[in-house]
Specification:
Length: 84
């Protein structure tokens, strides 16, 4: 996802396309070295995704302003565990 540097938050939709499985979804942002990025908050950080449901994740910039002369790489990780 591209996060506009001039905005305080962005959203992304996550859909469970399964007809039968529930998933526990955990999200977080990391820097390029795999360390948790404190510059971003993702809500909800943990939720249950029911079959056929769609959820919206909000990414909020909680750190200093991003550089305007270059791109900054962050990785948003989502883990899902079935059978919850």
């Amino acid at each position: 996802m591209i996060y506009p540097a001039d905005q305080k938050e962005a959203s992304i939709s996550v859909r469970n396309t399964s007809d039968t499985s529930r998933f526990l979804v955990q999200s977080r942002a990391e820097d390029r070295n795999g360390k948790k990025a404190d510059d971003f908050i993702i809500t909800p950080p943990l939720y249950v995704s029911n079959p056929g449901s769609e959820n919206t994740l909000r990414l909020m910039n909680a750190g200093p302003a991003l550089p305007s002369d270059r791109e900054t790489l962050f990785i948003s990780l989502g883990q899902s565990h079935s059978g919850c």
